[in-house]
């Protein structure tokens, strides 16, 4: 999609971090923006932070609920008549030793990170195909390319997003669809994902092992790149139709290290990129 001006972008998780940066970047391209998030107050503040010239609407949505994702689609069509670039970006983080992670946390992380993308694709893909134009961007992570310890639910969810995106890419290619797809696999980015517990559903556990690694995670995030840098890479990928969106130069080497261990029948390397 070389021409974005006048088109419609939908971004979930749009109240902060990469989602807000995407909304700003698409607005700067002259796109109309639909921003969805589970937090009403921050969502409205985020929309208000867009340039005055930007056309934007908001919708509160829990992406783990299919009917709420469908409501976002309906809001886009009602406001702007279409949706062209759909960013299934909403995500949460939770960690801890595998033996300690609660069932509620497994359901929460997979519900948002994986089922949220499933619902986004199922909801918007028919619309994009009917239009004969569009592009889907699914936010995964480098955690979908190699697995760090104490991040079980997150890793599983992001591997799922990568697998879903690869499958979708090849299906669209086989059918010669005009709809494109990209998978975003960022490494450390300065976002609030380490504060995801603010939206953890009632009753979810906070294992001691998760608290023990929080300081380490915070340290990595503090050295991360800005969400705006990530958004710029996404915009470029949409324009040229690039599938893989990698944000850090060392990601390829880490993937190569993991692949080498598979080919040589080795053990999984410990990678924290």
Descriptive report:
By secondary structure, the protein is α/β, with parallel strands linked by helices. It has a single domain, classed as 3-Layer(aba) Sandwich (Rossmann fold). 47% of the residues lie in helices and 13% in strands. It is built from 9 helices and 7 strands; from the N terminus they run βαβαβαβααβαβααβα. It has a 7-stranded parallel sheet with strand order 3-2-1-4-5-6-7, with helices on both faces. Helix 3 packs parallel to helix 5 and helix 4 runs parallel beside helix 6. The longest helix has 23 residues. The protein is globular. 43% of the residues are buried.
> What is CATH's topology name?
Rossmann fold
How many distinct folded domains? 1
CATH class: Alpha Beta
Provide the low-confidence segments as ranges.
none
Range of strand content: 5-15%
What's the main sheet like?
A: 7 strands, parallel
Helix content: 40-55%
CATH architectural grouping? 3-Layer(aba) Sandwich
Oligomer: single chain
Structural class: alpha/beta
CATH homology group: NAD(P)-binding Rossmann-like Domain
Q: What Rg, in angstroms, do the CA atoms define?
A: 18 Å
Average pLDDT figure = 91
Q: How many DSSP E strands?
A: 7
* Spatial order of strands in the largest sheet: 3-2-1-4-5-6-7
Number of helices: 9
Keywords:
273 residues, 7 strands, alpha/beta, Rossmann fold, globular, seven-stranded parallel sheet, 9 helices
């Amino acid at each position: 999609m070389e021409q974005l001006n006048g088109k419609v972008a939908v971004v979930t998780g749009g109240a902060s971090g990469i989602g807000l940066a995407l909304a700003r970047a698409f607005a700067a391209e002259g796109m109309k923006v639909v921003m969805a998030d589970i937090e009403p107050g921050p969502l409205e503040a985020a929309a208000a932070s867009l340039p005055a010239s930007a056309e934007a609407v908001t919708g509160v949505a829990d992406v783990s609920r299919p009917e709420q994702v469908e409501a976002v689609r309906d809001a886009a069509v009602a406001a702007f008549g279409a949706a062209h670039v759909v960013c299934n970006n909403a995500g949460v983080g939770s960690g801890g030793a595998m033996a300690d992670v609660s069932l509620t946390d497994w359901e929460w992380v997979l519900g948002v990170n994986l089922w949220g993308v499933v619902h986004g694709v199922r909801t918007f893909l028919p619309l994009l195909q009917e239009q004969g134009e569009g592009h889907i961007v699914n936010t995964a992570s480098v955690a979908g390319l190699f697995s760090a310890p104490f991040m079980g639910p997150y890793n599983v969810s992001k591997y799922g997003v990568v697998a879903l995106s690869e499958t979708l890419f090849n299906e669209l290619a086989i059918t010669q669809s005009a709809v494109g797809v990209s998978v975003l696999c960022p490494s450390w980015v300065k976002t609030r994902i380490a504060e995801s517990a603010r939206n953890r559903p009632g009753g979810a556990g906070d294992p001691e092992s998760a608290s023990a690694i929080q300081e380490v995670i915070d340290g990595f995030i503090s050295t991360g790149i800005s969400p705006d840098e990530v958004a710029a890479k996404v915009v470029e990928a949409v324009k040229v139709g690039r599938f893989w969106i990698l944000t850090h130069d060392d990601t390829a080497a880490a993937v190569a290290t993991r692949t080498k261990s598979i080919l040589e029948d080795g053990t999984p390397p410990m990678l924290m990129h």
